[in-house]
Amino acid sequence: MKLAWGGSEGCAEAQQMVSEKVSALIEASGTLMTGGSPDTVVARYREHVAANTKRLTT
Description:
The chain is an all-alpha fold and 58 residues long. Helix content is 88%, strand content 0%.
């Protein structure tokens, strides 16, 4: 909803989303390069999604 409404809150949310996606990409790449499995990457993404859902719905 913050994105839909725009304004300063929407802008801040968009910036945070991009930052989180870049961080997630770096984390996933590091996991795979050090021998981690795709299942490990997916499990970690699920943790991030759960945290985002909680942040955005409270």
